[in-house]
């Protein structure tokens, strides 16, 4: 279909958004969500650690960290760097894989239609292959390689790394129920993804997931008390109870075994699942995700109804907070309409909120329900329109006219806080670049990064929609794997709704 028609159709949808959001006019631009989706998967290739495969598309990266685990006699080669440094942090890595798997479970069809299904599976498997290696015994999980302090002392390409690659584990004497729970959730969710295409692998993932959950549940403790080096970077502030509920619900989804459901229902109160109303969903705090899953269950068994309703009321509190429809405790917004949780890497919360809102809007649509908030009633189309407004802000409908998804559109951050991207690639510059040499010659440059970190979602603007594209400004210009991971499903779903519009079918975003 011709582009003109596309634009006309997109414009007709825009007024629908005005009712709910403080709207910025360029919102009525039409975005290419399929392109954003494709770019997302390139980002995961940029973050790969280990031996890169022949079909690696991001060619400014090369093999790195090929002796990870060697000091401890374990093979920990692979996995992902979390953000702009070269540390492998298990907790956010696992959350990233849970999010990616969830996106494929819910929107696999749409990802496939956009031609990205194989890339999605590769992105997940790069993580799950690593978790299998890292889970060396039923009660042993390696949860970090490298450490933030020594790593941050240097500014080096991962390919040149000279920093400590010491690995850290949790076990029965040094427990880590949060990281074990999150890794169990990731493996359980991924087992659902691979069930059809790779049943043997799926079974293997499930086996590890079940063992990790048992380990986390039996030996309770916060991983950052066992692995002190994680504390300054990915401290488990919310504790491990949310991750144990999260693991249980994912294991129930993957196995339909009553024991996991019963755990989830019996611990609901004591573990905070039905008592904590929280307005963020992140690598640390899983409650909103747990509550959302619980409230989307189609429960034949009425005996669970009471607890599930309690879960649902907390999920609704979260969703209404994002929609600014609670009497009190809503998520703040910038003047440009972006959800605002906190200064440092705010986009992670925007991305996870957009994902949960999108999922829930489809749930409302399928079950012919509306969301009842204290300040109003919201239908599925309106809820989805709000999620779209957040994604459109990310892609360029914002006061800075900037796409916060790197590589998308004409104007995006040029100085992403990222070691590999900010230094000439090994392909261009074969010389070794040392620890402080990177700081001296590359970090402080005002020029754009030599390598574009396509598909990365950076931390984003401040509460006044302002953004400084400067490399040392890590609060705004650093990207993390879990930022982009939360958007994958939303991009796919938006692409589908756009495709419907293109073909002149009833738009999924109808007028409100
Ligand atoms: C969206 O981007 C993809 C490239 O990623 C391109 O093939 C496609 O034609 C674009 N769609 C529109 C409507 O411009
Ligand atoms: C919310 O505010 C409305 C209007 O002020 C009031 O009628 C309602 O009772 C409040 N709901 C709660 C749960 O406080």
TrEMBL record:
InterPro entries: 6-hairpin_glycosidase_sf, 6hp_glycosidase-like_sf, Glyco_hydro_9, Glyco_hydro_9_His_AS. One of its GO terms (molecular function) is cellulase activity. It catalyses: Endohydrolysis of (1->4)-beta-D-glucosidic linkages in cellulose, lichenin and cereal beta-D-glucans. Residues 33-490 form the Glycoside hydrolase family domain. It is an enzyme of class 3 (hydrolase). One of its GO terms (biological process) is cellulose catabolic process. Pfam families: Glyco_hydro_9. It comes from the Eukaryota. Gene3D superfamilies: 1.50.10.10. The keyword Ligase does not apply. Belongs to the glycosyl hydrolase 9 (cellulase E) family. This is Endoglucanase.
């Amino acid at each position: 279909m011709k582009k003109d028609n596309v634009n006309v159709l997109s414009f007709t949808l825009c007024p629908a958004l005005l009712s709910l959001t403080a709207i910025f006019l360029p919102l009525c631009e039409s975005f290419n969500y399929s392109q954003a989706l494709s770019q997302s998967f390139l980002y995961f290739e940029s973050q790969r650690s280990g031996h890169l495969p022949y079909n690696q598309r991001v060619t400014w990266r090369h093999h790195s960290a090929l002796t990870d685990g060697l000091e401890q006699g374990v093979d920990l080669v692979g996995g992902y760097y979390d953000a702009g440094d070269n540390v492998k942090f298990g907790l956010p890595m696992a959350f990233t894989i849970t999010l990616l798997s969830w996106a494929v479970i819910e929107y696999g069809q749409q990802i496939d239609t956009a031609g990205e299904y194989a890339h999605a599976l590769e992105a997940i498997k790069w993580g799950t292959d690593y978790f299998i290696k890292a889970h060396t015994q039923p009660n042993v999980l390696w949860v970090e390689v490298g450490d933030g302090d020594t790593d941050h002392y240097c500014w080096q390409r991962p390919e040149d790394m000279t920093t400590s690659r010491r690995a850290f584990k949790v076990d029965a004497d040094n427990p880590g129920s949060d990281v074990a729970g999150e890794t169990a959730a990731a493996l359980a969710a991924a087992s659902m993804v691979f069930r059809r295409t790779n049943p043997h692998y799926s079974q293997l993932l499930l086996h590890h997931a079940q063992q990790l959950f048992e380990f986390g549940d039996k030996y309770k403790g916060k991983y950052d008390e066992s692995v002190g080096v994680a504390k300054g970077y990915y401290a488990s502030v919310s504790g491990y109870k949310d991750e144990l509920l999260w693991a249980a619900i994912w294991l129930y989804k993957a196995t339909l075994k009553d024991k996991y459901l019963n755990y989830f229902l019996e611990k609901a109160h004591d573990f905070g699942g039905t008592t904590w109303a929280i307005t963020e969903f992140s690598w640390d705090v899983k409650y909103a995700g747990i509550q959302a899953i619980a409230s989307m269950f189609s429960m034949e068994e009425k005996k669970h109804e009471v607890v599930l309703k309690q879960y649902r009321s907390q999920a609704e509190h979260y969703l209404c907070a994002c929609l600014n429809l609670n009497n009190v405790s809503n998520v703040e917004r910038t003047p440009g309409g972006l959800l605002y949780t906190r200064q440092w890497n705010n986009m992670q919360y925007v991305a996870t909120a957009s994902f949960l809102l999108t999922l829930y809007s489809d749930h409302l649509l399928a079950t012919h329900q509306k969301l009842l908030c204290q300040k109003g009633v919201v239908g599925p189309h309106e809820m989805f329109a709000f999620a779209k407004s957040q994604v459109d802000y990310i892609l360029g409908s914002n006061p800075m006219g900037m796409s916060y998804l790197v590589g998308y559109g004409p104007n995006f951050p040029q100085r992403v806080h990222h070691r590999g991207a900010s230094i000439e690639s090994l392909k261009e510059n074969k010389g070794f670049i040392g620890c402080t040499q990177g700081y001296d010659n590359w970090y402080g440059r005002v020029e754009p990064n030599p390598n574009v970190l396509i598909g990365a979602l950076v931390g984003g603007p401040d509460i006044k929609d302002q953004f400084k594209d400067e490399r040392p400004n890590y609060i705004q210009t650093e990207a993390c794997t879990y930022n982009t991971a939360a958007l994958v499903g939303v991009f796919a779903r938006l692409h589908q709704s756009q495709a419907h519009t293109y073909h002149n079918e009833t738009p999924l975003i109808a007028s409100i």
